[in-house]
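Appendix B. One record, verbatim.
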Amino acid sequence: HGISKEDFENTRDFVMNYSKLWVQTQNRRLGFALDSKFYGTEFFIDKLEKELKSMTVDDVNRVIKKYLQFQNAKVAMIAGDAKDLKEKVLNNAESPIKYATQPTQTILDEDKDIINYQLNINKSAIRVVPVKELFEK
């Protein structure tokens, strides 16, 4: 169903404010300035804020509908014991969520659905890649 207007606005505001932290140091500002110059764009943080301000929830939901589909999603996961993770994913093992602080009841109610969500993964599509080989290709 896409993202709600309230969630969209909260996320947009968070990204606009948080992105300013990306350029707190002179070295980071210089890095973003060099990237912007290389790509021929205005300063990235300014561009990000301008584009986020002009974006609407309808824009985001249109893009979600067009590009974000679970049928062809590809995910990379890093794990200490990847073979065990693979087995758990393939067997739809329960995955309880642990929080550092007590979440709201609404979140706990949503978690009940997530904990036992059936992934229905294509077994032949899962590959365990040793970390030494991960970035070689």
